[in-house]
Structure formats: structure tokens, C-alpha cells
Amino acid sequence: MWNWNCDGPMRVNDQEPEDKQRTLAIAVVGNPNVGKTTLFNALTGLAHVTGNYPGVTVERKVGALQLNGTAADLVDLPGTYSLAARSPDEMIVVDVLLGQQEGETPVDAVLAVVDATNLDRNLYLVSQLRELGKPLVVALNMIDLARRRGIAIDVSRLSKDLGAQVVPVCAYKREGVEELKRELLRATRGPAPSGGGPDYPPALVAEAGALETTLNAQDARRKLGREVPFLEVFRLLIDRDGYAEHRLEEEMNGGLRPLLDEHRERVTPNGSLAAIEARSRYAWIRNVVAAGVRKPATPVTTVSDRLDSVLTHRVFGTFIFAGIMATVFQAIFAWASPLMDGIDTACGAMGEWAGGLLPEGPLQSLVVDGVFGGVGSVLVFLPQILILMLFIALLEDCGYMARAAFLMDRLLSRCGLSGQSFIPMLSSFACAIPGIMATRTISNRRDRFTTILVAPLMSCSARLPVYTLLITAFIPETHYLGGLVGLRGLTLLALYALGILVAVPVAWLLKKTLLRGETPPFLLELPSYKLPQWRTVGRKVYVQGLEFLRRAGTIIFAIAVLVWALAYFPHSDAITEDYAAQRAAIESGQLTGEERDSALEELNRKENGEHLQNSLFGRMGHWVEPVVRPLGWDWRIGMAAIASFPAREVVIATLGTTFFLGSDVDESSDSLKQVLHAAEWPDGRPLFTAPVALSLIVFFALCCQCGATLAIIRRETQSFRWPLFTFAYMTLLAYLGAFLVYQTTTLLGWGGPAA
Amino acid sequence: MLTLSSLKPGEGGVVSALHGGGAVHQRLQEMGVIEGAAVEVVRIAPFGDPIEILVQGYHLSLRKAEAALVELEL
Lengths: 755, 74
Prior knowledge:
The complex is a heterodimer of chains A (755) and B (74). Chain A has 755 residues and is an alpha/beta fold. Helices cover 61% and strands 7% of the residues of chain A. The termini of chain A are far apart. In chain B, strands 4-3-2-1-5 form a five-stranded antiparallel sheet.
């Protein structure tokens, strides 16, 4: 039966009073690890709009909710401990709250999410939010856990002292959510908190007031074209070298620093303003907590503490960490592969089917090789991304991620990174794409970019087929230590080690040059462990997967089509006609059955090969021959290397096509190995010797022949500069590495025919 | 001078001064490592750095280089 109830909401809307027309904007702010996202999801359901703030890689998330019939947009801001902005995340928080973020409407109210089990530190941010001049509501999250730990909170007393309504909630059980909505609506119609805040020294208050007057004086204001709100003035004064100072300095074209220093000097001649602020706020917090919170005399030993005595234990902790990492690695390396093979086969089959519907020619080739081949090359990464993101979301949500960084920090800090880079780096051994996406958990921008730039040096699974082919074809099967260790295995191990050994100095250099700056403080909260929330985890995995398909997909797809065009055009009609004639000759000739089929197949391969040689790629191969000669390569190897730009493993198919075998070969193909062994220079010397094979392997270990990786770097860094830089430096390293290996091994006399 | 970086797990003290400047200095104080705050070293990471401390009722991890800026009295 037709459901007439679908008209229901419309009628309700019609009856709404007029003053509810405008959509309210409410910002959600809080420290990291307070369950902000879970509460955001509980308030807004699953309909979110996600994106990026312009020019930065800070995720923008907005969800709609109804406050008793009034529409409101909830803006989920990045987790932060303070409004003294120093990182891009913190800058966004401050800009949105002050109504200075481009494209964002000024917020009507602020929802502060705090952890009820740790009010002392959480109230620091609240003390700053009180001073925004916006209505404020405080959600006291994890109230159940606080009760279990014997912490009693007098909500009405706390509300009075904070000057903002406090609502106890339990986000994952969705308790208190309705009351929170009511208070939010009431707050948007009420005043901002006033009076009763921290007691700042009179000199600080006086100087902030004087600075506010100066900056908002008529001539200064005309020059600036905007008002400087008090909170910004406060940050300008206190945060020496902070974000507020840098931005206003730029807006004013200089002259700000001496003015600020003059005022700072008057507050405290050589002391620290930051210390004054922190002491004043914490003194206020101590009073507020003393009045409104009763804690047990002896803090209870929590489950979390007991877990940590094992999970971050010197010995057990390290072993458990290694076990977890091995599982993650195994999952993205091995568990994903059946799914990946399935996607690959399905795309291939669909391509063939679509190709069958089209007449032979450029359109058919574009659909089969460009579109379906291109879509397939994007889709195959999806299982790995989903699996890795699932692990990361689980580890993050339960609180283990911070412990992993704690355990591994020492190793990575030596090359200028931090413990937070470990999981992205490890993941990159399976595939750099999920690895690079995983760098979002790194809080410092320079650390994050450095990790992104070196992640593709880790030997990913796409390199394995190339390694396998060339090692089994050209490295003799010699065994040492009574058969325990084989030369081939050692070579493979050396290639994995090569990536790591090269990444260390590269990361170090990047941190000293392009990404240099003050060493970021490694102040990492180790939050209490909690059970992961399937909603939060599921949502994270879903959003990441979808975003990968939507945003990276378009770039990867464009690259795939471009590469197809380079390998296809100019499609010489002369060659096609020539082969058509030969094919006709065979078909009408003496051969029958299998012999005829194999002759036709052979002819097809030759035709493909000739077209490829004649294509733009083929011509590029000839141009680059002088360049690749010092690596021991001829133009055919050079062309295969160039044509493998979309993905390294393509080089196998390209070598096959180039050496007249057709593209239907894989790394285990014995015939390809034989053909490579038989390949010769024009003067009859064998082409593939051990030095040539080694130089080719080393080139592929270090190069960035992976269009998808470059596309993902472009997306994660929001700039074309970094993917171009990555491609350039890795290609240079690959060339130098291949050159050194070829020249040294040749000098050592390994240049005889390979075994 | 006794600093936070020289303590062993289980040992603690009260912050008497914070040295250094800039972002580290400010961030430490925002996170609650201020003059007069009680701190205790909970454990040291397997490779000897960073350390985990208990301050303002929560667990914070920081590097020894940062802990060396925190002067204590017992």
C-alpha cells in the first residue's frame, strides 16, 4: 500500500514559526580523545558532508541536526588542547570560531566536549572558549566512566562556575543527547559566558585592552579592513611567534612585531607570557574543580593502567607491538590479494565484454585498455585501503595508536621523524597508497609531509613481481650455509633493506632543508583504553574508501587514459594494413587448426609490439637511449621503464610486448625469461647480463613509477609541487643507484653472460 | 638541578621551573606541566626514550629532551 506518511515532515515544517528559518551554525570543539566524533555522530546521525578546508589538508565535517524544529549545522572541528594556534589544525579551529574562516558562516554557539574523567586538563580549553563571546554549552562526556572511577560532579555548581550549561552525556550509549540538543537551542538564544573567569595579572589585562584599542583605532581599522576581536588580541599578545601574529603581520605588511613587543615588555620585562596565562587558567581550574568535583582520595588503579603495564612493557609491550604490526602487514599484504585478483579479473572481463560490443579501432582500445584498464588499476587498491583503514581506525579508537607512537618514537626520531610515522611507513611495504593516507594521524605537518615523501621508497607489493621476474631470470640459485640461505632470497632481502636505508638519509635531509623548522614538541597524550565503537570505526573506513575512489580515482583515471594515448598514438594505418594482409595470407594459406591459431597469435603479438615501438612511448624510448646507456640498458629497456609510469608491474607486460612476445605474460612466465636471455645488442652481445638485470632491479626499487601514488600525494598535500618533487627525486635516486650498480658490477667483472 | 628527565619510573616531584622557550615551553604548560604541578614518571619506552608521566590526573608522553626543561623539587 502507498505510504502517505511520507508527507508528514512537510506538514510539520509548514507549521514552523518564522523566526526558525535561518540555519544555525554550532561549532564542536574539544581535546583529542574525548569522544568528540562519537558525540558528533550521535547528534547528527550518519548524514555528514566531508571535505577539506581550502588550501590545507584539514578535514571539514558538517552534519545537520534539528533542534526542536530549528535547523542547525554542526561543524566538527579538529581536536585541540588550546586556542594558541601553531599547527594548521589549530589555525582552522581558531579561524572558524572567530568567524574568519573563508566560506564559513560565523558560529552562533560553541559546543565544548570534555572528558569527565579528566576535567583538570580539559577545562583549559573551556577557559579559553569562554572568552570567545559566543554562547557555550559543555558536554560532560564519558560520565559513566567518571562515576565508575568514583568521581562525583556537581553539574549545577559547575554550570554556574563555568558560566555555561553543563550536560552530562555518554556519547557511545547516546545518553544525554536529547538534553544536550535542548540546551544547545536554549544557548543560541541566550548570552555568552561573562565574568568569573581566570584572574589575570592587572598588567596583562591593561596591556591587552590598550593593544585592542590601538589595533581597532580608526586609521588602523581602515587599513586592515576588519575588526580585531579581543580573543585575537589576547593571542597576539601572548603567543610570541604564533599563528595570530604571523597572519596579522602579513595583513598589515609589517610593523606589528615592535608594537607587540612593546606591550609584552610592559606586562613582564623578561618573563614568559605563556606561563602567566597557563598559571592563571590552571589556578581558576583548581578552584572550579575544588568546588564542583569530588574525587576519591586515592585514585583507583584503572583497567587501562593495568593494560598499559603489559602493553607498553619493555619486553612484552615490544613483542605485542611486533605481533600487531605483523598481523596488520600480513592482512594488507596477503589477505587483500584474493580480493585484488578478483577485482582485476572482473575489470578485465568487463573490458573484454565492452570491447566486444565496439568496432575495432581507437574507441575500442580506449574503452578496453584505457577506461576498464584504468578503472581496474584504481579499484585494485581498494581492498588494501579498506583493510588498513579498518586496522588504523580500530587501533586509534581503542587508544593503542598513541602507545605505538610511544614505543617506536626513539627509532624514528633519529631521522627527524616521530613515532607517529611508524604505521604509515610499515603500511607502505604493502602499498604506498594506504600508507600515505594513514599519515593523517601524524599531527605535525612537516613530519607528515616528510613521511609522505619517503613512504614510496618502501618496497611495496607491486615491486615484488618485478623483483621475482628479474631475480629468477638472472640471479643464480646459489645456496650458502648448507642450503639455509640462498642468493636469490638474499637479493630480495637486500632490495627491501635498500628502500629503508635510502629513506633514512632522505628523511633526514628533507627535515634539514625543504621541511626544516623547529623540532615539534612530542607531547602525546596516552588516553585511557576503551572498546572501539563500531559506528565510529565503520564510518571512518567507509569515508576513507569512498573518498579514495572519488577524489584520487579521477586523477588516477586521467593518468591511465593519458598513458593509454601515449602507448596507442600515432596508430599507423600502414602497420595495421600490413598485418591485415599477412593475417589474410595465413588464413587462406596451408596451415590448419592449432598451427594456424598459433601463427595468428604470433602475428598479433608482433603487431602489438610494432605499434608500441611506433607509438609516442616507443619514440621516447629511442630519445632516451643515450641517457639509459650508462645503466647498461638499450632503448627497449628504456622504453619499458618509461611505459611503466602508471604502475611498476606494467614493466613486465611492456618487456613482453617489446621483446616480441605479446603482452600476455606474467612474472612466472618461463618463455619471457628465455626471451630476455636471448635478447641481444645489435652487435650480437647478450643484452641482459647480471649487471644489467641488477641495475634494472635497483632502478625499480627506488623509482616512483606509480601514477596512483603520485595522485594520492597530490590529494594529501593539496599541491602539485610535492608529487612532482617526489617523482623527480626518486627518479634521480633510481638513476644514480642503477648507474652505480651497473658500473661497479661491470668493473668487478660480473659482466659475463648471466648464469 | 633536578629535572624530570633524570627520574626513574615511580619517582615524582613538583615542578619548580620550566626552562626553554617557544612552542615547547608553551605547549608543556597548556598540557598542565606548570609551576606547582605534581608529576610522576610512570615508565620509560623500550628504547630509553620517550617517557610517560602522570600529570593533572592523565598520562602524557614526552621526550627526554623536553623533560630536561622541567625542573623539579622533591
